[in-house]
Amino acid sequence: MPETTRKFLTSGGWKELEFVPFREMVTIHWIRPFEGDQPGVALLRYEAGAGVPRHRHEGLETILVLDGVQSDEAGDYGRGSYIVNAPGSEHSVWSDTGCVVLIQWDRPVKMLEEK
């Protein structure tokens, strides 16, 4: 299993990892997939112009932006930004420039819209 320490990820080591399709123009590298009641942890890589439609958080979601800028209705989050989305919160996500984020979900999200 590839190294996924904080130092490795924040110094650009994520560029060495294998990503697979997740959504249109978004790929994923699972660090720890959902298993039973355990949270999921992954890296998401958004191409420039990619987005995820409106969805609701069924559990806590935390995001650390490793590269680029991720946006939602509340603002733009550049490299080093730490975002917390509370259970029950809703938003859509996009990246005009492309980005890579480290994300942890307590539970999978519920999609409210589809692109």
UniProtKB/TrEMBL annotation:
Residues 15-103 form the ChrR-like cupin domain. InterPro entries: ChrR-like_cupin_dom (IPR025979), RmlC-like_jellyroll (IPR014710), RmlC_Cupin_sf (IPR011051). Gene3D superfamilies: Jelly Rolls (2.60.120.10). This is ChrR-like cupin domain-containing protein.
